[in-house]
Structures are given as structure tokens and as C-alpha cells.
Design goal:
homodimer, mainly alpha, Arc Repressor Mutant, subunit A, Tetracycline Repressor, domain 2, 2 domains, DNA-binding, DNA-bd_HTH_TetR-type_CS (chains A, B)
Chain lengths: 215, 215
DNA sequence: TGCACTCAATCAATCGTTTGATTAATTTTG
DNA sequence: CAAAATTAATCAAACGATTGATTGAGTGCA
């Protein structure tokens, strides 16, 4: 039946996403993916044409779900600049667990030196998030809520970069934290609230500081 | 002569570093490296044991000088905790931006979770640097210089993560900053001092804050 | 029968590594 | 000192394994 075919393709994409995320494009083999997915190896080429076609299919599926997710970021006029930013941070940290293996894929692709159509597409989509936060920061500086000499681009790099570091280098962050950051229970119950608290305190100390912050 | 042998090994390491950085560990082949370096393929195994051994040799050469630098800072009794940390940040920013293509490689390999042998060794080497900074932070907390409720592991994640984000996602950070972060002149003359200033101000605001920082 | 799907078997290419022979350099020995 | 013995360095060739991809025979359903 048609639905079964779609389910099977989707299942292959699920497995491929995981394996590509763990091992990279070169490190992942088509045999491994087909074996893990429980399908014949020839199915990958039959469905997706090639290994690269499979990789692109994984990406496009994720990106389309990303785009709809981004649409419900609204601008609440009743909130202060800081409350908006705090809510952004909370929401952002909240989402790191759901897509964390895909996040690794995205960052690895973006770090490749060659400029591809794919990385341009990813950049464009991620910039929506970035610009959302940038707008909040700029507004807050304009209305005097935030430190006027704030380095906005670097502050954004800190928010995204800190999270990326924890997720993308799990070996190191696990050693630092004393727990396996890949353990979902620990992630949900301990690390998530901890990162939220830390990130807001860090950013607030930098942005909303009324003593001498110039040296 | 002995010096020639060292020069040849060094030349191989130079070439290997470039190719590994461009293509990743899996993407780079031993044939490509030996061909580019103008040596017989067997020499790689003769000198470095294996492809992985070659990679680790490249890696250790890169990081060893930074490691001793960090240790010298940490062991300097004449500096305050904050001055030590500030110097670490300065040196770190100074260093990574020069070697940014290799840094990207390291992060790519680390983000692949399953390759046990290689990533474990990289982790082990990088942890020396992490622990050096952790020691400075812990000392500063103990002697009252730093905020007592500092989340040390996450603060470290911020230092490393912010820098990683800037250089690993050059497309995005270039758009944010309004300049191409891959332009070496801009990197050297503008971005580097800017990141140093920002990073120290950010960390200081978080660590050395005497007003209410608990909410 | 016709069509979409599935499979084991196999393809050529490339991978990292090993081998055995050869040359260059060094040390030991008479 | 010179010949001999030993070690180190280098090379072309080939190793077995694995890679992504293809084949052609078969499957079951419409």
C-alpha cells in the first residue's frame, strides 16, 4: 500500500539521520544504514538514487519541519525586553534535546569549507532565529533596558555557541559535568533547567549591569 | 642527517593537517596525503604507525604548545585569579583564530559520537586544557574572587562555545557581524580584539559581580 | 500480463595497511 | 683505516577489506 511505502521511506530517513549525525557523511556507510533500517541495501539507491540523495532527503525533511516550527515565534508587546529574551533562551534550551542529533548534522555541514547550495539554505533558515533575538536585543538597548555598549552579534554567538558546545562535544561536556549528557533523563531533569538558569544569569549579568562594566 | 628526517616528518604533518582540515578524517585518504607530500605511501605507516596515528601526531603538535602555555599561566603565583583567567582568554582567542581551519576539523570529529578510539584520544588531550581553566575558576571561587555560585562547567562551555560558534559557522557569524570572518585581515585587526574584549567583559560580569546575581 | 518492489549476488573502485626488496647511513670489527 | 655487519629509510607492488552502486532474477499485487 502507498502508506506503507511512505512509512518505510520515513523509517529509512529516521535511521539515516541518526547514523549520519553520529558518523558524518563519509563515516556512515550505506550498508550500515540499510542494515540498521532492516531493508535491503539496494533500496536506498532505488528510493533515493544515491548516498548523497539520501543525505539530501534527510536534510530536506528536517528543514521543512523546522520552517513550520519557526512560524509561531510571536512578538508579545506586553513583555519587557528582558522577559522576551529570557523566554527566548528558555524556549531555545527547551528544544535542544528534541533535535540534538540533527543539530550536530547542521553544525557539521555548516563548518565545511566548501560553499554549497545546501549550507546556504541552512544558513538562511537559521538566520531567522538569529534575527529574532537580535531584534529583541536592539530594542532593549534602544529603550535603555540593556547595556548600551552590548556587543550584540557576539552575545548571540554566546547563546547559540554555549548550547552547541554542550551538545556537539558530548564527550567533553559529559566529563566536565560528571554525567553523560546523552542520557535523556539527566538532560531533561537536570541539565535543561541548569542551562536555562545559567544562561539567563550569564546574559543578564552582561546585559543588565548597572555598575562599571567598561573595563 | 637527523634534521632532514625531522623536516620531512614535519612536512608530512603540514600536508596532513591541511588535507585533514579540508576533507575531514574519513574524507582524507592516505594516498592523497602521501601524494601531496611527495613521499611514498608506506612512509606514513612507517613514521606514524597508522592513519589515526598520523592524525593524532598532527593534533598533538598543534595543541602541545598551547598546553604548556596554559600550565605556565596556572602555575604563576604572582597573578590574581581574574588576571589568570583574562590571560587564558586572550591567549585562547589569539590562538584559535589563527588555526581556525584545524579547529573546525577537531569539532567535526568530536561531534561524531560513535568513533570511540579517535574521539576518546582527542577528548583526553583537550580535557587537559579544560581542567587547567577549571582549576583557575575553582581557585578563584575558593579565594572569594569569583561569584560563589558560579556554574563552572557551563562557564567553560561558554568560553569555548562562543569562539567555536564564530569560526565553525562562518556563514552565520559573517552575516551577523557584517564582515566575512574568513577574511584574515578583518580577523586579525578587528574581530580578534573585539572577541577578546567581549569575552572578558562577559565572563567578568558573570564571575565578578557584587550586586544581586541570584535571580 | 504488467508493474512496483525486493532481494542476493556482484561490480569496479578505493580504502588503510603490509610486504619484501633495495638503497643509504651507521656501527662494529679485524 | 677499511671491510663487514647492522640498522634505518624508501620504494613499488600487492594485500584483504570495504566502499557505493548495479544487476537480473524473483516477489506479490492489480
Amino acid at each position: 500500500m502507498d502508506k506503507d511505502k511512505i512509512d518505510k521511506k520515513d523509517h529509512i530517513l529516521d535511521v539515516a539521520e541518526k547514523i549520519f549525525s553520529d558518523l558524518g557523511f563519509d563515516g556512515a556507510s550505506t550498508r550500515m544504514i540499510s542494515g540498521e533500517a532492516g531493508v535491503n541495501m539496494a533500496m536506498l539507491n532505488y528510493y533515493f538514487g544515491s548516498k548523497e540523495g539520501l543525505f539530501l532527503a534527510v536534510f530536506e525533511r528536517k528543514i521543512s519541519s523546522f520552517q513550520t516550527l519557526l512560524q509561531n515565534i510571536g512578538n508579545d508587546e506586553s513583555m519587557s525586553s528582558w522577559d522576551k529574551l529570557a523566554k527566548c533562551i528558555d524556549n531555545y534550551v527547551e528544544r535542544i534535546i528534541v533535535n540534538n542529533c540533527f543539530q550536530k548534522l547542521i553544525n557539521r555541514e555548516l563548518s565545511m569549507s566548501k560553499r554549497s547550495e545546501l549550507s546556504d539554505k541552512i544558513t538562511q533558515i537559521l538566520m531567522v532565529n538569529v534575527l529574532e533575538i537580535k531584534k529583541i536585543l536592539d530594542d532593549g538597548i534602544k529603550n535603555g533596558t540593556f547595556f548600551k555598549d552590548t556587543d550584540t552579534p557576539l552575545a548571540i554567538a554566546t547563546i547559540f555557541g554555549t548550547k552547541n558546545y554542550i551538545i556537539n562535544t558530548p564527550n567533553i561536556s559529559s566529563l566536565m559535568l560528571g554525567h553523560d549528557v546523552r542520557d535523556e533523563k539527566y538532560l531533561e531533569e537536570q541539565l535543561k533547567p541548569r542551562v536555562k538558569t545559567y544562561m539567563k544569569r550569564l546574559i543578564k549579568a552582561y546585559l543588565v549591569n548597572d555598575n562599571d562594566n567598561t573595563k
